[in-house]
Amino acid sequence: MDILYSLDLAIFYFLNHTISTGFLDKFFSIITDVNKWYIAYAILVGIAFFKGGQRGKIAVIGLIIMIIVTDQTGYRILKELVMRIRPCNALSDVITPVGCAGGYSFPSNHALNNFAAAIFLLRLFPNYKWIFLIVAFLVSLSRIYLGVHYPSDVIGGALLGAAFGYLFSVAAIKVDEYFNSKNKNEIEPEV
Questions:
Q1: Which of 30, 52, 65, 82 is most buried, most CB within 10 Å of its CB?
Q2: What CA–CA distance (Å, rounded) separates 131 from 129?
């Protein structure tokens, strides 16, 4: 365990100290702030729901339900069970461009939610997989860079999120297939 914790700290300090610059402070501060992205989320959800056909509607509804589940699982259950102190509260020399968040550290809900969304969406819309994965990776990386999560918090959140995203995508694809077969049966005349 000491080796894993040492590795966790080494990666944390590399991202939080070694590569720390003013440009990255601003970049990751914007990337990590959900409040700066609500308008973009609303536009994308609207496009998917109104222009994405049946699969777009299923994706939007499934995504909303999934994010509620993953966010509450991370925040209300896992963080309370693990009770890991954030690095910005546990270590005295952490660089915190956006300040130190309250609450517990494991898992990173940013990583959990974003990787859940990325895996869910890439399975439904595989043509955009790199966009979904890059966004999830950058948001997750921002949490370490900004000093509010250890790398293991982010990796744990990403793995849990990927599992949730996969499970919810299986359900969404089944719902889509069900409606497709139902629509096909309604169109074909009985013989």
A1: 52
A2: 6
Where residue 188 falls among pLDDT bands split at 50, 70, 90? Answer: low
Q: How far apart are CA 132 and CA 116, in angstroms?
A: 10
* Separation CA 187–CA 181 (nearest Å): 10
Q: Is the pLDDT of residue 75 over 90?
A: yes
* Beta carbons of 60 and 175 less than 8 angstroms apart: no
| DSSP per-residue letters across the chain | -HHHHHHHHHHHHIIIIIT--HHHHHHHHHHH-GGGTHHHHHHHHHHHHHHSHHHHHHHHHHHHHHHHHHHHIIIIIIHHHH-PBPHHHH-TT---TT----SB-SS-HHHHHHHHHHHHHHHH-GGGHHHHHHHHHHHHHHHHHTTSS-HHHHHHHHHHHHHHHHHHHHHHHHHHHHHHHHHHHHHSPP-
What's the CA gap between 21 and 97, in Å, rounded?
10
Task: Give which of 100, 117, 99 is closest to 157, Cα–Cα.
Answer: 117
